[in-house]
What does this fold into?
Amino acid sequence: MQIATWNVNSIRTRKEQVLAWLNEHPVDVLCLQETKVIDRDFPRTPFESLGYSVYVSGQKSYNGVAIFSKQPLDSFHCGFTPVLGEEIVGNYDEQKRVISGVIDQVRIVNVYIPNGSSVGSEKYDYKMGWFEILNQYLEKLLTEREICLCGDFNVAPDDRDIYDPTGKDNHIMASPQERSAIEAIKKLGFQDAFRKLNHEGGQYSWWDYRTRAFSKNRGWRIDHHFLTEGLYEKVSNCWIDIIPRQQEKPSDHTPVIVEF
Amino acid sequence: MQIATWNVNSIRTRKEQVLAWLNEHPVDVLCLQETKVIDRDFPRTPFESLGYSVYVSGQKSYNGVAIFSKQPLDSFHCGFTPVLGEEIVGNYDEQKRVISGVIDQVRIVNVYIPNGSSVGSEKYDYKMGWFEILNQYLEKLLTEREICLCGDFNVAPDDRDIYDPTGKDNHIMASPQERSAIEAIKKLGFQDAFRKLNHEGGQYSWWDYRTRAFSKNRGWRIDHHFLTEGLYEKVSNCWIDIIPRQQEKPSDHTPVIVEF
DNA sequence: GTCGAAGGGG
DNA sequence: CCCCTTCGAC
It folds into this structure.
């Protein structure tokens, strides 16, 4: 089974590129982030024509997640609330950042973790609060079955995951507190699929548009698959496909694919 | 000599299509309207690389005209003021709608005539006032040499030039007053090059984006070449190329070419 | 429908 | 740098 994750930065703008990529890489599951479209306007049909079942949870302008799956998903839900209840979740489901379903007794959890703006900002606090809810949500789901938790985490787990880590310890996506949140996920029993087979740095999944970072390969590895032990041990490959980032009008992220 | 006119609805957005068209149709002169860009930001270089001299008169967001010419232009000017003086022109040169130069003893006058919004509106009055100044401007230039007056006139000269003329006599681009303004130009000695060789209706140069008018061929012929007698008698062909209007992300207008 | 602008976001 | 929205224009 191949499961890919890709922050597409607007599915309507990236539709043709995603279709072309799926034709070349007919993965079993594709998890999308930043679809930026309400469910009614999601361009489902072309992906359904490719043989995918399409599951979406979107909002206007911002955020939004989706799962394309060759097999229909079981036990599908959106947001934290169906698992944790409104009491615990509060308003953390207002932004559409979580979508999940089960395929072959594996629960896929597709997340778009808040960016956090800058360390210490209000949005940073929201990010950290979001991680706490995510932790509780995962704890509940772990009682059921194996989990593939993937998506855009907006965190580079360690210094190998940044083109130049010097002076980045107070930088968003690299602060100790954000990395602790990743460690907490690992403590639950999740392991970084990419790091099973790739031990070197220098492989990235996101390059900032603003500084023309891609042409200088000033990237970050912030898109991940975190797997429970039963899946992790079966991982045969995990790689980043930078080709889509080289196209005309690309997303700032590029797909990451795990195979097990 | 071939002279084309094309309202491109933003030269920056249409750059590649105009380049592709010029490669297929290496006309001697291309007159553009609605370039929608200040002169500093006009993408001159790709057209110069094709062998054209580039003359521009643009403004931010709206209007804007340009001439591409295989031979450099003589006696080049922009607006009415160089010919009529500020006294007569008033503020009619604030909007960039006129550009002119001489090639092979022929004066090219490229115009983007105001749309006029709706009959009786303030913008309609501006359009009619603009026609009056144009008339005076042409009278002056007629003392010099033959003239090719071309561009987007925003007027369908007669009922053959509208897909369905019924009930259009109070419609913008078809009102008696606008058609009188075209008649006044003819009275100065100009003749509609397209009508020398095409007597039937049903050939259009503009189709509204809004109503998907192109797919239903609900068009208007509002882009013209008006020629003085010495040129008109030499006209060997005049045709509308609808291919560019069939492309992806087209302008709402398509090129019209005269040959003499 | 499509354009450019302006403003918010990353 | 690129996306989205809202706006006026045609």
